[in-house]
Amino acid sequence: MSIGAEHPEIVTVLRSSEAFSSLDAVELGELASVCKEITRSAGELVFREGGRPHSLFIVSHGRIKVLKHSSRGKEHIIGFFGPGEMVGEVAVFEERPYPASAEAVENSRLIRILREDFVAYLVRRPSVALHIIRVLGSRLRTAQGRLMDSTTERAQQRLARILLMLVRRVGPTLPFTREELGQMTGLTTETVSRQIGEFSAMGILNLGRRELVIVDEDRLVLLSEGPFDS
Amino acid sequence: MSIGAEHPEIVTVLRSSEAFSSLDAVELGELASVCKEITRSAGELVFREGGRPHSLFIVSHGRIKVLKHSSRGKEHIIGFFGPGEMVGEVAVFEERPYPASAEAVENSRLIRILREDFVAYLVRRPSVALHIIRVLGSRLRTAQGRLMDSTTERAQQRLARILLMLVRRVGPTLPFTREELGQMTGLTTETVSRQIGEFSAMGILNLGRRELVIVDEDRLVLLSEGPFDS
DNA sequence: CGCCTATTTGAAAACCGTCAAAGTATGTGG
DNA sequence: CCACATACTTTGACGGTTTTCAAATAGGCG
Fold first, then answer.
1. Could you tell me if B194 and B187 are in contact, meaning their C-beta atoms sit under 8 angstroms apart?
2. Chain A 171-200 contacts with nucleic strand D (CB below 7 A)
3. Is the dihedral of CA A108, A56, B126, B130 positive or negative?
4. What is the pLDDT of residues B143-186, one digit of tens each?
5. Beta-carbon pairs below 8 A across chains A and B
6. Residue B102 · residue B57 · CB < 8 Å
7. Contacting residues for A73 by C-beta, under 8 A, at least 6 apart
8. B112 and B102 in contact (C-beta within 8 Å)?
9. Three-class secondary structure of residue A205 per DSSP
10. Angle, helices B178-185/B189-201, rounded to nearest 10 degrees
11. Model confidence band, residue B72 (pLDDT cutoffs 50, 70, 90)
């Protein structure tokens, strides 16, 4: 394989990624030399739930959604991942199948790193391993937070919370269907529609086809903290 | 500080722990030299949600429960951890407060490792970092699985799934109150009581005070996969 | 224009939480 | 040993919330 200096675009992407931003030029080049770029058209899978985990991925362009299938058909969206974010990392370190599928939402480009290459790299670069631990810790923290929300909170609050999270990640215009919002919150499409209808009537957001625009984030914060708190 | 060889009990515990079982004698001794044993009586806290994370812990004797408080009062149990298992690891690598509290269920002993000591150790022992990554990956996997359950599945199925998980971890006799089962699943005590009442009527388990005994694990598997599947 | 998908709306039913009360084991002090 | 307090558990009734089922509406793209 060629050396890092010959992959300038890959180095650029890695440098602005959540997991590798703190690496120096040498470390980046070294990692880039075991990376490969792949493309996926909208709707294509990056990996499939239950499949053997050979690689992890860094999104370089586009948007990837990670989802699980529940016992009967329903899809649950674990998250959307954009440029600089890592997907498939959970399965790579255990030797167990991918616990979820990853699908390109738009035409996307990703950087692929093979399991063995990555493990070998981490052994040589302990500080990078610490960074990965930090990223995983942060994912775990949010997963556990959402778990509690979903078991103790009502539809309006759950939806408000997800919308807030999305606003902070992607800005005021949220390009999601009602169905996708349902799959993120565990609500049905109909409930989401009714609920954001109310939000719209309250002047919190504007409805659109396949999108909604948040105009009053502060009020959303209040709703996400529960209907009545002193 | 003294060297590892002077901490034989600690070495023994570390050797049988989920995170450090693969270490050799030298590595174990080295780690043991920065460990300290602490004890907690039943009901005492090991760390508190929101507190500054200075340490992570390995349970050596007893049982620890990790829980979060929701916006108004309610507790949600993230998990129970027994001998060999690690708690407090999430907060240690980010510089953010503990996201949950840990409380001794029984009189317990734990091994404490200070944040700085552990980070320094990981930098010297990259293979241990990989092991930690594996543990975190596994935690993340189960958290995401439970998240999906709680958002897409009904009480009976959720309860069946938690009971199955518990059976596999602690054996057929489950020493939990109805309230604790509720806090694990996000159901009320009453709903849990009614539901396990049905399970009992079906001959799946036997009820007891502060415990229940699973007698038909297979049927529980069926229920956990959904009420009707071809 | 016509089809396909997304969205909205309505009505009924299921499910679970809440509130209230009674029942039952366990332990304690007299 | 009994009486009582305490904590855990069970049961019932009710109501609210969300799902489900069904149908209508609307937008985009060929």
1. no
2. 186-188, 190-191, 194
3. positive
4. 999 999 999 999 999 999 999 999 999 999 999 999 999 999 99
5. 151
6. yes
7. none
8. no
9. strand
10. 110
11. low
Structure tokens at A52: 């053997």
Q: Which residues are CB-contacts of B171 (< 8 A; sequence separation ≥ 6)?
A: none
> In Å, what is the separation between the CA of A33 and the C1' of C10?
60
In this structure, are residues A92 and A53 in contact, taking their beta carbons and an 8 Å threshold?
A: yes
Structure tokens at B180: 């604790």
| Residues having Cβ less than 7 A from any atom in strand C | A 177-179, 189-190, 193-194, 196-197, 207, 209-210; B 154-156, 186-188, 190-191, 209
Look at residue B6 in the predicted model and tell me its pLDDT. Answer: 64
The two three-digit tokens of residue A126, written as one number: 């302990």
Which position has the token pair 């806090």?
B183
CA dist A179 and A191 (Å) reads 10
Is A186:A158 a contact under the CB 8 Å cutoff? yes
- A104, A44 Cβ separation under 8 angstroms: yes
Q: In this structure, which amino acid lies at residue A11?
A: V
Among B151, B154, B227, which residue's Cα sits nearest to residue B194? B154
Looking at residue B86, the DSSP 8-state letter turns out to be E
Q: Do strands A86-87 and A75-81 pair parallel, antiparallel, or not at all (unpaired)? A: unpaired
The amino acid present at A154, given as its one-letter code, is: R
> How many residues make up chain B in this entry?
230
What is the architecture, at CATH level 2, of domain B3-146? Sandwich (2.60)
Query: Tens digit of pLDDT for each residue in A145-161?
Result: 999 988 889 999 999 99
Contact B96, B29 (CB under 8 A): no
* H/E element, B101: strand B101-104
All CATH 1.10.10.10 domain ranges of chain B, comma separated, are 153-224
Residue matched to tokens 């200070």: B114
pTM: 0.91
Quick one: CATH architecture of B153-224?
Answer: Orthogonal Bundle (1.10)
Which 3 state secondary structure label does DSSP give B110? strand
Range(s) of chain A covered by CATH 2.60.120.10: 3-146
DSSP of A17-40:
STTTTT--HHHHHHHHTTEEEEEE
